[in-house]
């Protein structure tokens, strides 16, 4: 058979997602036992086990968080009583209070929450948020001295302040009292504030340990209103802002966060806050029936409508965050504190316009960054094990988002920066599970200006002349802690499922795990050896796919979407897929679809095509009462499957091509779509026969 090229349509795809699949071990006996004891299905029980929940008591606490008896936050936070007392005194004496917030979603919702609460309690209160562009994160001496000149007697930091020793010391020098509310890591030296509220200072076992900045603000505001006996009409709006900020800040949805967010998601659709109403309207968010199955009893349904965390994470949160990244945070504060629907809609539209600009900016910078990486660093990436990407005229308000996308694409830690001026670089960093970003920055301490962060992310600045030295130092650090196998994004998978199991009933059962988010991820399933029967690019580089699985001679078909997978188009004809379940409602019809998170060549095919020795796999098999021969052959160093029928016609296919050849030789062969059932069925039969030979060899 002559070697002739196939048409462009049949060329090998560039690549598949570069991933490590980590599939949880299936504890079938334990799952069955837990299912019986809790009246849950075995698949839900397995998902709970994957999340460290193995007893009925743990399951009840997780599934019914309202059943937990919480300790009083006054007992958990040592300085909470003092903080309430300082605020009470300031309100009673009508002393000026000033809030110093932050420009991310957590900081802005925290600021709005305390502004609304304190104003409702008749406090004299105002706020300030440092400039992202000109001052960076956290309270500073300028803000402190400005507050003092305006007659402020009490400063309240939200989502910042725990590391601001000098600014807070300056406030104390000026006779201004300070309450620090923050959730960031504890520095070696605490600031000299009058009171400090930070969940990192309390016991790790506390249910309050995982609250974000907005959670600390919520606890303080609730305790204050309770102390003053003024809770009516205040708690629900505060809970809604807590829910927005907690999800948008990617705080863990465990402990009190899970309890309060679950409650808040039910309140948001009927919010009386004009700003929340306007955001929901502009964001196109629709509340859906909660449809939660009770963990005990006969499976009665709760018909109340609720939002899901992804509504905030992907719709509302980005519109808030975009303003903090490239706009004026006052827009969001006005949005979330106004009682005027007209103002709220105007501010929500401004958020929408800013978010559109942010999306465009991210897309442009991402494409420029990819082009730069592909031309300068791609060859050395396996040896470098880290990317340091710096270019002029990138907006540092969005480069953190781009860093996350580059981590997803290349599977290595990413340090990305831009020039503030000719002599200074400012940047963001994002890591992978085996790499500690803050420790990496510490390793470069003598070469950097300001820096901070935690295990997964960080920010930094440096003199431009130190760029190459920082790059070399980071490569050295990465090679100390990363092995080649780490350089693939980790995809954690809960359980295997077949397409005949995917239905509305399973989707409703999964509601028992909601709200899902950080530390309680959406369940991820995988299905082996599915057929890609249709695929097309839609929107901004997404792949819309129709998948099929044949079980006991019956074909099950399901639609799927793969976000931002343009580079992997077209997908191979046979793959294993990993996915989340999602609802898609169109023209009043709701269907369950897949959101693809991972895809790999089907395991059987991979073993046969890529681990067999050349010319070692040959066999005969029977298909529909006819005898065929088949084998794996090398063609231009690429393995291909050839199947020969009794008449001498040969079908040729490669696992990464979507078109095969059919004929007695390559000269007279025609191109055929091997996804068609008549070809796919015989290919699967041949692979099955070869798999037996491969297993024995």
Protein model, in words:
- This protein is of the alpha/beta class and 697 residues long.
- The chain folds into four domains: 20-24 and 491-601, OB fold (Dihydrolipoamide Acetyltransferase, E2P) (Beta Barrel), CATH 2.40.50; 70-249, inorganic pyrophosphatase (n-terminal core); 378-488, Diaminopimelate Epimerase, Chain A, domain 1; 604-696, no CATH class.
- The protein is 39% helix and 24% strand.
- The protein is built from 22 helices and 26 strands.
- A six-stranded antiparallel β-sheet has the order 21-22-23-24-25-26, covered by helices on one side. Strands 3-2-4-5-6 form a five-stranded parallel β-sheet, with helices on both faces.
Summed up, what is this model?
Residues 289-310 have a biased composition (Basic and acidic residues). Residues 287-310 are annotated as: Disordered. The chain is 39% helix and 24% strand.
């Amino acid at each position: 058979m002559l070697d002739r090229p196939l048409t462009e349509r049949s060329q090998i795809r560039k690549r598949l997602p570069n991933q490590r699949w980590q599939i949880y071990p299936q504890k079938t006996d334990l799952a069955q036992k837990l299912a019986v004891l809790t009246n849950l299905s075995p698949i839900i029980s397995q998902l709970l086990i994957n999340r460290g929940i193995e007893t009925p008591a743990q399951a009840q606490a997780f599934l019914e968080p309202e059943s937990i008896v919480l300790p009083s936050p006054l007992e958990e936070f040592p300085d909470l009583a003092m903080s309430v007392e300082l605020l009470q005194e300031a309100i009673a004496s009508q002393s000026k209070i000033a809030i110093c917030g932050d420009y991310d979603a957590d900081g802005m919702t925290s600021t709005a929450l305390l502004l609304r609460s304190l104003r409702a309690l008749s406090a004299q209160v105002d706020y300030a948020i440092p400039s992202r562009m000109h001052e960076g994160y956290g309270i500073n001496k300028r803000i402190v001295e400005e507050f003092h000149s305006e007659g402020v007697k009490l400063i309240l930091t939200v989502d910042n302040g725990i590391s601001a020793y000098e600014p807070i010391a300056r406030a104390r020098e000026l006779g201004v009292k300070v309450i620090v509310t923050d959730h960031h890591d504890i520095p070696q030296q605490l600031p000299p504030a009058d009171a400090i509220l930070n969940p990192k200072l309390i016991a790790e076992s506390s249910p309050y340990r995982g609250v974000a900045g907005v959670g600390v603000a919520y606890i303080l505001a609730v305790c204050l209103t309770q102390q003053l006996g003024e809770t009516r009409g205040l708690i629900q709006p505060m809970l809604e802002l807590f829910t927005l900020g907690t999800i948008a800040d990617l705080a863990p949805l465990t402990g009190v966060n899970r309890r309060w967010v679950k409650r808040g998601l039910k309140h948001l659709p009927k919010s009386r806050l004009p700003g929340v109403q306007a955001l929901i309207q502009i964001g196109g968010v629709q509340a859906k029936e909660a449809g939660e199955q009770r963990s005990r009893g006969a499976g009665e349904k709760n018909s109340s409508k609720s939002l899901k965390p992804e509504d905030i994470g992907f719709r509302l949160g980005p519109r808030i965050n975009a303003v903090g990244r490239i706009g004026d945070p006052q827009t969001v504060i006005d949005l979330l504190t106004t009682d005027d629907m007209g103002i709220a809609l105007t501010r929500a539209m401004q958020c929408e316009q800013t978010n559109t600009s942010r999306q465009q900016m991210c897309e442009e910078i991402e494409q420029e960054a990819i082009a730069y990486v592909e031309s300068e660093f791609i060859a050395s990436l396996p040896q470098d094990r880290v990317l340091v990407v710096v270019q002029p005229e990138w907006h540092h308000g969005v480069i953190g988002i781009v860093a996350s996308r580059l981590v997803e694409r290349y599977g290595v830690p990413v340090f990305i920066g831009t020039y503030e001026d000719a002599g200074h670089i400012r940047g963001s960093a994002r890591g992978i599970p085996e790499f500690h970003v803050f420790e990496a920055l510490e390793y470069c301490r003598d070469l950097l200006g300001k820096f901070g962060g935690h295990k997964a992310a960080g920010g930094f600045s440096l003199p431009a002349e130190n760029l190459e030295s920082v790059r070399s130092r980071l490569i050295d650090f990465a090679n100390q802690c990363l092995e080649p196998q780490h350089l693939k994004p980790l995809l954690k998978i809960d359980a295997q499922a077949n397409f005949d199991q995917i239905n509305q009933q399973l989707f409703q059962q999964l509601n028992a795990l909601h709200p899902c988010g950080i530390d309680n991820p959406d369940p991820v399933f995988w299905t082996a050896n599915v057929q890609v029967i249709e695929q097309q690019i839609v929107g901004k580089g997404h792949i819309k796919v129709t998948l099929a699985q044949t079980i006991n001679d019956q074909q099950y078909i399901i639609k799927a979407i793969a976000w931002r997978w343009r580079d992997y188009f077209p997908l191979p004809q046979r793959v294993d897929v990993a996915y989340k379940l999602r609802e898609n409602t169109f023209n009043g019809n709701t269907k369950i679809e897949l959101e693809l998170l991972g895809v790999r060549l089907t395991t059987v095919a991979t073993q046969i095509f890529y681990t067999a020795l050349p010319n070692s796999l040959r066999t005969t098999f029977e298909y529909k009462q006819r005898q065929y021969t088949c084998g794996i052959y090398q063609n231009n160093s690429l393995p291909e499957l050839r199947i020969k029928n009794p008449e001498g016609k040969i079908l040729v296919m490669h696992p990464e091509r979507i078109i095969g050849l059919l004929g007695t030789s390559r000269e007279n062969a025609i191109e055929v779509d091997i996804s068609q059932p008549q070809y796919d069925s015989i290919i699967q039969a041949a692979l099955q026969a070869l798999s037996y030979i491969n297993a024995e060899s």
